[in-house]
Amino acid sequence: MPAIVSKETFQKAREMMNARKRAPGANKAKETYLLSELIFCGECGSAMQGNRRKAKDKPMYISYRCGGRMQKRNCDNKEIRKEYIEEFVLSELEKNILNDKAVPILVEKINQHIQEQAKNEKESTEIMLKEIEDIDEQINNIVSAIMKGFAHEEFKTMMDDLKGKKAKLEVAIKEQENRSKAPKITEEQVKQLFSMFRDFVIQRNIPKCKKFIQNYVNKVIVYKDHVEVIFNMVFNILQGYEAYKIKSTVKKAILFKRYRNIA
After folding, report:
1. 216, 196 contact by CB (below 8 A)
2. What is the Cα 248 distance to its own chain's centre?
3. In the chain, what's the furthest Cα-to-Cα distance?
4. Under a CB-based contact definition with an 8 Å cutoff, are residues 46 and 67 in contact?
5. Is the pTM of this model over 0.70?
């Protein structure tokens, strides 16, 4: 039978149908959950999932609920209201990171962190250099044995293994040397990093924030009595990545009291 649509149109339609099969709930989503894939139950370790429920004559209750509890596993950690936890994360992000007054403090702490990492890298390099010395000694012993007429097939295998280990150590040392030369972070770099995201946070534009939030939030952990948020700042330094983490903690009772008027 003759084609009634072009091959290009047919291919696009098939791709759209396949996409819908892979994500059957995509068109049914009624909420933007800012912390999807970032929020976890502190009691059982399960990921927390967005949940909506409505009791008769009451407004819609939207929350994050422990995935283990939803699957009826042994976890009694209560759900937490979506508006409360998301507002806390954004307000802490705005206060501790996306704030011009916080930038100099952040820069100082980040550079201290980089210096500590450089010190650790140096100590690790010294250990690997000692390993290379030991490998060279073993190689020399094998060569001496061969020169004295003790030729065994095992020697070649041992020599190859030792040379392979030495080569890997030399690569690791080179990488650590590059990381140890990382320049200091400047205030301007930090401000540029924040420039795009800051307005979205101030405006509480949740759909836009969701596109960037994983760059700044490492993990949100909900325990029975308190919540921990670990913020993550990552800088591209000398073809590597340097991460710096900040933790905020709040009691659930304080969280509910502080944000109950935003629902």
Report:
1. no
2. 16
3. 94
4. yes
5. no
Tell me which H or E stretch contains 219. strand 217-222
pLDDT tens, residue order, the chain (263 aa): 455 556 666 666 665 566 555 444 444 457 889 999 999 999 999 999 999 988 777 788 899 999 988 777 788 899 999 999 999 999 998 888 787 887 887 788 778 877 887 888 888 889 999 999 999 999 998 888 888 777 677 788 888 899 999 999 999 888 877 766 767 778 887 787 787 788 888 889 998 899 888 888 999 999 999 999 998 876 554 444 556 688 899 999 898 888 877 65
Reduced to 3 states (helix: H, G, I; strand: E, B; else coil), residue 49 is strand
Cα 120 from Cα 133, distance rounded (Å): 20
CA atoms of 63 and 116, how far apart (whole Å): 40
By C-alpha distance, which of 75, 77, 81, 72 is closest to 50? 81
Instruction: List strands edge to edge, sheet with 48-53.
Output: 48-53, 61-66, 80-81
What are the strands, taking DSSP E only, across 120-225? 217-222
The CA-CA-CA angle for residues 241, 246, 252, to 5°, reads: 140
Which stretch of DSSP H or E encloses residue 227?
strand 226-237
R_g of the chain, CA atoms, integer Å? 27
Neighbours of 70 (CB within 10 A): 14
First to last CA, the chain: 59
Amino acid at 230: I
Q: Which two tokens stand for residue 254?
A: 């304080």
- AA letter at 111: N
Contacts of 146 (CB under 8 A, 6+ apart): 155
